[in-house]
Amino acid sequence: MTPPLLEVAGLVKHYPVRGGAVRAVDGVSFTLARGETLSLVGESGCGKSTVGRCILRLAPVTGGQISLAGKRIDDLPERHMRPLRRHMQVVFQDPFSSLNPRQRIRDVIAEPLRNFSLASGAALDARVVELLDQVGLPASAMHRLPHEFSGGQRQRIGIARALAPAPDLLVCDEAVSALDVSVKAQIVNLLLGLQERLGLALLFISHDLAIVEHLTHRVAVMYLGRIVELAPRRALFAAPRHPYTRALLSAVPLPDPTATRERTVLRGDVPSGLAPPPGCRFHTRCPAAFDRCRTEEPVPRQVATEHIVACHLDVSAGP
Ligand code: SF4
């Protein structure tokens, strides 16, 4: 059987601090197939971006395993990891924040091509033009500087740069969060088109469920370092099972402005990852918490096809 493109099993990432460790990710497991989009969602501090950083090997893991196309990568020495990096690329919220503002777009996009020795000379320029075209920008953009572009255009350039080494996996970390609503939609459509054309797998990390609903195949909802619900998009948005997912979705505006839905307002903030609550980590904010939740951690279980929930309630029949 062909292995999934990406397999994450029991991923743990703790950050040591004085007097303990911040448990940013605490046993996260999922798979991602070629051509599929999986969205990691949750409030700020839930660990979703840390999962992305671990997969990209931008942060060493504390435990668990990460495999790319069946090959374990979490424990690879950097010299063995380096040639694999071209297969997984990232698009951040602001891809230009770390770039030299005096670097022309040609060089921004050409950098990964040079780093991985994928093109040089005229072939390099031709590839840059091809990549600009793929993201809907004219060839003339290559001679310009980053500040000459709007936020949406910059994100297109960031995507072109990420696509340069022809990756199999694109990690989009809050990639559209800073954009205006109409520009967001354009970038989402661009990503969908590229995925279809190139067969890319997308790991879409976002706090914005309204956007996620438009582009994802499956959704993993994270809370305080754990996945609490993992399900196909339709199942999750039509009938969320976990109380946390229900609360998050209750805050998403409905497309019909005359329609209303009952809003669940969560009390307080996400607790510190330095000392997560015992039992179910969500029990301090959960409107349905009962005694067992305070002492016993819920084990993730399958409640429907491809639908996994970690909750003590009987959620097998849905809400
Ligand atoms: Fe709420 Fe208990 Fe379910 Fe946790 S296990 S989500 S506290 S009902």
Summed up, what is this model?
This protein has 319 residues and is of the alpha/beta class. It has nine helices and twelve strands.
Can you offer a commentary on this structure?
The chain is of the alpha/beta class. It contains 9 helices and 12 strands. The longest helix is centred in the middle third of the chain and has 18 residues, at 181-198. It is globular, with a radius of gyration of 21 Å. The protein binds iron/sulfur cluster. The site of iron/sulfur cluster has 12 residues, from loops.
Write the layout of secondary structure elements.
Blueprint (H helix, E strand, L loop, with lengths): L5 E12 L2 E13 L4 E5 L6 H8 L7 E6 L2 E2 L5 H4 L6 E4 L13 H11 L5 H14 L16 H13 L5 E5 L7 H18 L2 E6 L2 H7 L2 E6 L2 E7 H6 L4 H8 L50 E4 L2 E3 L10
Parallel strand pairs: 3-8, 3-9, 6-7, 7-8
Antiparallel strand pairs: 1-2, 1-4, 4-5, 9-10, 10-12, 11-12
Helix pairs in contact: 3-4, 3-5, 4-5
This protein binds iron/sulfur cluster (SF4).
The site of iron/sulfur cluster (SF4) has 12 residues, from loops.
Q: What keyword list fits this structure?
A:
binds iron/sulfur cluster, alpha/beta, single chain, 12 strands, 319 residues, eight-stranded mixed sheet, globular
| Rg from alpha-carbon coordinates | 21 Å
Number of strands: 12
Order of helices and strands: EEEHEEHEHHHEHEHEEHHEE
Which oligomeric state applies? single chain
Report the portion of residues in β strands. 15-25%
| Fraction of residues in helix | 25-40%
| Sheet with most strands | 8 strands, mixed
Poorly predicted regions:
none
How large is the count of helical segments? 9
Structural class comes to alpha/beta
